[in-house]
UniProtKB/TrEMBL annotation:
Entry keywords, A to Z: Membrane, Transmembrane, Transmembrane helix
Stretches that traverse the bilayer: 9-29, 44-67, 88-111, 131-152, 164-181, 205-228, 240-260, 280-301, 342-366, 402-418, 430-449, 455-473
Primary subcellular site in the record, as a coarse category: membrane
Molecular functions (GO terms): L-amino acid transmembrane transporter activity
InterPro entries the record matches: AA/rel_permease1 (IPR002293), AminoAcid_Transporter (IPR050598)
GO cellular component term of the entry, any: membrane
Lineage, highest ranks first: Bacteria, Bacillati, Bacillota, Clostridia, Eubacteriales
Location within or outside the cell: Membrane
PANTHER family: AMINO ACID TRANSPORTER, SOBREMESA, ISOFORM B
Protein name as annotated: APC family permease
Membrane topology: Multi-pass membrane protein
Organism expressing this protein natively: Qingrenia yutianensis
Keyword Transmembrane helix part of the UniProt annotation: yes
Length: 478
């Protein structure tokens, strides 16, 4: 008798997964990025968060509509197959398995390790210790998901609640503090004074600030990976996607306003959001904040690992990809695709190594004699003569961002095909997909705008991996 994934997750877990995956470490620092991008214009910054959140919600709404009709193993792959056919669905699943899931999962493992070390006063994000701890976190989260998926689901809920505590605390306390405290010599309360920095709105500045929000909002699509394991998925997955993304946007905006109430715009731009925490709650909270950030990253890592462990399985379940019989096997005890999970872990480890090698490339020329920089160094980047470090221009790419935008590019054909589904209302079938297409195109343009030559190198790697996937699409042995 064929074994199938059992219904083990409820609506609360699904919502927690959406919120938990999207709300990661980035939210604690994006406030400073947005302030810099908007030149300290607080109203413009809130508008940027609204636009970025709107793109996320519109895309999530479209997939939520698709979820009411399709319920199989891997949500996005199911939707791609229904809209664009089996070949497109397979290539989408192959991309997510080989690039998307392991790339962002490995980065979250590194972030978890980095902030854990900072709790103990070890500011070593590029050290071997950080790399080793990141690998340890990958293995630990993998083991929890592979051996006890129910515990992993409960951890996801707990981590989501924990990470929302400092965000909610700052949103409430920061707003109150900002409305009641006046800076020395000021006639207005701090928050009102900060909002008075509005400069009338510049479209170029707005574009740059929305780009800064784009990656903070990513991750919600991963929740579709458990639609076959979600109780009453046709009702609960749409609810989770819609409610979860709306909650994320509200939390981000509330936190942004709260941070603005804790310090002047100039201070926040120079020193970051932790200054607001220190001003309101004292210096002890600085360490506590790092603990919350580490837990936040681990919660996000856990949610992403759920998708990683099911990557190859989602293809094998369709009798596609390499050795489908091997990778479609489920463990009789845990009801988990163990072979698929092992491949997911190995891919995460490989991409973690790449992230260190490509994105922390300053180690390559540490203590290097700038006067003797050879042609290879000049080819891959720009050497800083003062710090003896290199900034990679194109011989490498940011594996934490570009793969995410690639997924938005893959959404576009799905949204176009969705317009042909007559069973949906005109609003769901035409209006929302059009907005989703516009938002997805914007994300692609933003990536090219921000990464330039890095995109060119990424496309080479992307093409090689996708051609490999096409070569193993139809297995000879079933």
């Amino acid at each position: 008798m064929e074994k199938k994934l059992t219904k083990k997750y409820g609506l609360l877990t699904a919502i927690a997964m959406v919120v938990g995956i999207v709300v990661g470490s980035g939210v604690f620092f994006k406030a400073q990025n947005i302030l810099n991008a908007t030149d300290g214009d607080m109203p413009l910054g809130i508008l940027a968060w609204l636009i970025g959140g709107a793109v996320m919600i519109v895309c999530a709404y479209c997939f939520a509509t698709m979820a009411t009709k399709y319920e199989k193993v891997n949500g996005l792959v199911d939707y791609a197959e229904a809209a664009c056919g089996k070949k497109y669905a397979y290539m989408t699943g192959w991309f997510m398995t080989m690039i998307y899931y392991p790339c962002i999962t490995s980065v979250l493992a590194w972030l978890s390790a980095r902030y854990t070390l900072e709790v103990f006063g070890m500011m070593e994000p590029t050290s071997g210790t950080c790399l080793a701890l990141a690998g340890l976190y990958l293995c630990a989260i993998y083991a929890m998901n592979a051996l006890s998926p129910i515990i992993a689901g409960k951890f996801q809920v707990s981590a989501t609640v924990i990470k929302l505590i400092p965000l909610t605390l700052m949103a409430v306390a920061g707003t109150i503090y900002g409305l009641t405290v006046k800076p020395d010599g000021a006639s207005q309360a701090l928050l009102i004074q900060n909002f008075a920095t509005a400069k009338g709105g510049n479209t170029d500045i707005l574009f740059g600030s929305v780009v800064a929000t784009a990656f903070a909002y990513e991750g919600w699509i991963v929740a579709t990976a458990i639609n076959a394991e979600l109780k009453d998925a046709k009702k609960n997955l749409p609810r989770a996607l819609t409610l979860g993304t709306a909650i994320v946007m509200c939390v981000y905006i509330a936190y942004y306003i709260g941070v603005a109430g804790g310090a002047t715009v100039e201070t926040l731009r120079n020193d970051g959001a932790t200054t607001a925490f220190t001003n309101i709650f004292g210096s002890v909270l600085g360490t506590i904040l790092k603990v919350f950030i580490a837990i936040s990253c681990l919660g996000t890592l856990n949610g992403l690992m759920l998708g990683c462990t099911r990557g190859i399985y989602s293809l094998a379940a369709r009798n596609e990809g390499p050795k489908p019989k091997v990778f479609s096997e489920l463990d009789p005890t845990t009801n988990m695709p163990t072979n698929s999970a092992i491949v997911g872990l190995l891919l995460c480890a490989a991409w973690l190594f790449y992230f260190f090698a490509a994105n922390l490339a300053s180690l390559f020329v540490a203590n290097y004699d700038a006067s003797s920089a050879n042609g290879f160094i000049k080819l891959i980047g720009t050497l800083n003569a003062e710090t003896n470090t290199i900034s990679v221009n194109w011989f490498g790419f940011d594996s934490s961002e570009i793969p995410i935008v690639t997924l938005y590019a893959m959404y576009i054909p799905i949204f176009f095909k969705m317009m042909k589904f007559k069973e949906f209302s005109p609003f769901k079938r035409i209006v929302m997909p059009i907005f989703a297409i516009i938002g997805s195109i914007f994300m692609v343009f933003a990536a090219v705008y921000a990464h330039k030559w890095g995109v060119a190198f990424y496309l080479i790697v992307f093409a090689v991996i996708m051609l490999w996937g096409k070569a193993v699409m139809n297995p000879k042995e079933n």
